[in-house]
Amino acid sequence: MPGFPIVDTHLHLWDPRLINYPWLAGNALLEQPYLLERHRQDFKDVEIEAMVFVQCEAEFPAFAREADFAAEQARLDPRIKGMVAWAQLEKGSAVEADIVQLKRHGILRGIRRIIQFEDDPDFCLRPEFITGVRMLADHGLSFDICIDHRHMSNILKFVEALPEVTMVLDHIGKPAIRDRLLQPWASQMRELARLSNVFCKVSGVATEASLDWTEDDIKPFVDVAFAEFGLERTMFGSDWPVMLGAISPQRWIAFLDAFLISSGEIGRRRFWRDNAIAVYRLDI
């Protein structure tokens, strides 16, 4: 484990009794409340200095209620210093009213509108979506990119069109780990890393592997993320509780800590906390 407190940039909390999350239906592990007490139990051996709540893909009309819920959780646990909420960015300039509404929560730091689930592979390149994302820069907000490897080629065009917006690639772009396909994802990661407004969240990796995965299965993919983005533009994310279907918090943290053991104190602190504080502008 790191010898200092860390920042978790990818925390989910939900209560399906209060808000509907359609994607949880039928998932015995996840279709239940995941709240702060359970989080404390799962991370009891980990010293966490700060956390960033990330939207959990509630049914779209409930986006404001989910933000209210997240803000209440932050009042209960002040370690939640940031929120990445949902907004319908494909509305273009009309989304500004929603963004203003969300900004009443002082912990709002960014927006995530998941691209991965869209049937249209060109969804992220639609002019109105580009307009909506561009508006985030005017409000001092970042954009979390949630895709899988199939969307990488279009994401390169998307990011190139929006140099003024700080971008965070969630889950290292969800490569095809189950199929052990490094390419073309690895080459696309190199191209993406050349765009200086993009940061890479090292999270959700084991979830993309087969159920009987070994560390040798995921190491090549983690290695690409660090090789291309470096310790200057990577940050830690747990993806709790989604991660629980593949890995425990302790094992994920221990894996990354061992991976970075020779990186030096400054580099390790950048990954485990400093980059997150800077990118998400956390008040610590």
What does this structure look like?
The protein has 284 residues and is α/β, with parallel strands linked by helices. It has nine helices and eight strands. It has one domain: TIM Barrel, CATH 3.20.20. An eight-stranded parallel sheet has the order 1-2-3-4-5-6-7-8. The model has no long low-confidence stretch (mean pLDDT 97).
How many angstroms separate the termini?
Answer: 21 Å
Tell me the helix content.
25-40%
Mean pLDDT: 97
Give the tally of structural domains. 1
The general outline is: globular
Topology:
Layout: E1 6-11, H1 36-42, E2 48-54, H2 63-76, E3 80-85, H3 96-102, E4 108-112, H4 127-138, E5 142-145, H5 152-160, E6 167-169, H6 185-193, E7 198-202, H7 215-229, E8 234-236, H8 249-259, H9 265-279
Helix pairs in contact: 5-6, 6-7
Quick structural gist:
This protein is α/β, with parallel strands linked by helices. It has nine helices and eight strands.
Question: Which key features would you list for this structure?
Answer:
284 residues; alpha/beta; TIM Barrel; 9 helices; 8 strands; 35% helix
